[in-house]
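Appendix B, example 12.
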Amino acid sequence: MGRLADMFSRRHAEGRGALMPFIVAGHPRPDALPEVLKGLEDGGADAVEIGIPFSDPIADGPVIAAAMHDALTRGGTVASVLDAVQHCRSSTELPLIAMVSISIVDRLGGPAFIDRLADAGFDGVILPDADLEAIGPHRTRALARNIAFTSLIAPDTSPERAARIAADASEFIYLLARAGLTGQQADAPDLGDRVKALKLVTSLPLAAGFGISTPDHVQAALADAQGAIVGSALVRSLAAAEAEGRPLEEAARRFVQPLAEAVNPAPQG
C-alpha cells in the first residue's frame, strides 16, 4: 500500500476526512519548500499537492498562475523541483503529490518521467490536462512504481467520461468542486449528488478542490468527499508572508491549523 492510500485508510478508520493543501514549487522563493512542508505538517495537513510550475497552467486562477510565473522567473525548473522534493523526503512522512502538465511529462520522457517523480519521493501524480486516450503508458508506469495516479473530474464531465477517469485512477480521485478557474469563492461547495453518482462506479476516496479556502468550505466538502484541497488561499497567504518578511514555516502552520481543526468525520462507505 502506498503512503497516500495508507493515509486515506487511516483517516477512514478514524472517522475523519483528509486535509490536502496545494502549493507551488519554488514559490514564494526557490528554497521555500522545506519550511513550507514543515509548517503544513505541524499545522495538521494530511498530504500536500505540489504544483510543478508551467508557463501555461490549465484551469488555474490568477493567484496560482502568478505564483507559477514567479517561480519560473526566479529560475525554477523541473529538475530543481525534483531535487527539492528529494531533499525534503527524509524529513516528512506526508504523502506528496505532483500536479504536472502532460506537456512537461511528455517533453521530459513521457512515461519514463514518472520514474523521476517516484525517485524524487513523490507518492502520487495528477495530470490535469492529459488526454484519456493517451495516458495508458503513464498509468502503467505509475502503478509499477507504486505511486497514485489520477486525473480531474469536473462538474461538466459526462458520466461516461467520469466513469473512465475513475476506472483509470488509483488511490484517490480529484473532484473539482466548481467549474471554471481555481480561486477563492464565498459559498461552500455542494457535492452531494456528484459524489453519490461517482460512488456507484468507484470505491476510491474522493478529494475535492477548487474554491475551497475556509474552515466552513472544508467542512462542507468533507460532508461528502474524503479529502479537501485548499490551494489559492494558501498560495496567497505564503506570498504575503514572504513580502512582509514573516517566516514561511509559521505562516504555513498558522494558515492550515484552523482548517485542520475544522475537519469533520468522513462519510462512511
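The mean pLDDT is 91. The domain at 3-261 is CATH 3.20.20.70 (TIM Barrel).
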